[in-house]
Amino acid sequence: MMATPEDIEDFAVGFSLTEGIVEQAVEIATIEIVPHAVGIEARMTLRASRSEQLESRRRRLAGPAGCGLCGIESLEAAVRPPRKVSAALRVGPGVVFSSVSSLREHQRLNQATRAVHAAGFWSVRESRLLVVREDVGRHNALDKLAGALARSSVAADRGFIVLSSRLSIELVQKAAAIGCPMLVAISAPTNYAVRAADAAGMTVVAVARDDSFELFTHAQRIDTP
Asked: Taking the model in full, what pTM does it have?
């Protein structure tokens, strides 16, 4: 994988979760991060029961930072229906505005480079961004966030994810895989992403700014006048 070389353990765990390699982080028995002159190797072993199940699913786990579908061997795998989400989350417009402005403030790498995406998790209970991860690839940033949440035992249905990028089908699939009920993005969603989110029961808020946003699916989670 082509990825920004930090938070590699989060990336390894998150990718394993969002791509269905494991269903829970505890199914990963060991993780070892090994730096090399030309890159970083993440060595992981699965617990025996999960390892046996994985044998029935084939995928080349190699690809550049790009569309997010690299390595998938069939159209059926590419368009797999996302997992249903059902969290009874409700937030006001002000919370959405705060999440967007807060994500921008937490983008340390992007402030230095102007070339990096971010994914953050807004905790409704704590009324703040609980975790933020950055990467040159938007899919990688979300995977890193998913891994960070899992490794900290934070349930993704207790808040929502805010993204610094456009919203595509792969990001909906990944968010649904960890049970997140709502995605907020600063750019527009693709039509395919909207259809997938609607089918999954996920709320999509996009073209989000500090004072406005557009609501595409499952409006019941936004308390609007």
From this structure: 0.91
